[in-house]
Amino acid sequence: MIKKIAIIGGGNLGSAIAKGLKNAKKPFEGEIAVTRRRVHLIKSLEQDGIIVGKDNVEATKNADIVVLAVKPYQLKDILDEISPYFLEKTILISLAAGVDSLQISEMAGGRKGIFRVMPNTAISIGESMTCVSAFQSTEEQDQIINGLFEPVGVVQFIPEELMASATVLAACGIAYALRFIRAATQGGVEIGFGSELALRIASQTVKGAAELIIQDKSHPEAEIDKVTTPRGITISGLNEMEHQGFSSALIKGVLTSFEKIENAGKKK
């Protein structure tokens, strides 16, 4: 039974995970401790019953799970600091992009049972797409990690070599989707809506489109075909977007993010 989780690094993602776990439909009932050097920036987490502080060692003591929500270049120093305080059963989770599990294991003194996890910030409202890779873990540890993140979204175990791709498609991807919503909202203002109403319509429309794919397990083009008619307004708009490079720009953006994360990994 997991009684304590320590999240080392209370930035946007670390804080979102803490909030998501506490506010899930099936909330984590144990202790969650989050650390950050500038503690005042995470004081609001206390409203959700989360312990905040700046002492990484104190947070790590007796933790069943330690989440490393820090920058890749900080990993070694952090692990040097907290590794002596791990329990034998402590499961280590890294959110750091571009640092593989073998490297993390070596930094942690050859530790096994390491997971690289990439959620996105929608974890704070229980709607994350969380990709997970496991390194020298047991089946029981895999089940623990799955059970931890399942209440806050969808969990998908993947080979570690796909973690960089998962970072781009799931974690960066939420920003791409939000940029589409913002652009659609601006278009809505151009055609007569106030900004708040345009945002509401655009947001719900994107949510509905995603649910069509998720619930019906259909292909996007099949759903597009249902709303495009010969000489209709929808196909005219879609064709103009394609003429302006809509799909190619999005694909190029995904590839650019991927190339950057790959190059960052090669520099180490």
UniProtKB/TrEMBL annotation:
The keyword Mitochondrion does not apply. Pathway: Amino-acid biosynthesis; L-proline biosynthesis; L-proline from L-glutamate 5-semialdehyde: step 1/1. Residues 160-261 form the Pyrroline-5-carboxylate reductase dimerisation domain. This is Pyrroline-5-carboxylate reductase. NCBIfam families: proC. The gene is proC. PANTHER family: PYRROLINE-5-CARBOXYLATE REDUCTASE, PYRROLINE-5-CARBOXYLATE REDUCTASE 3. GO terms for molecular function: pyrroline-5-carboxylate reductase activity. Its main location: cytoplasm.
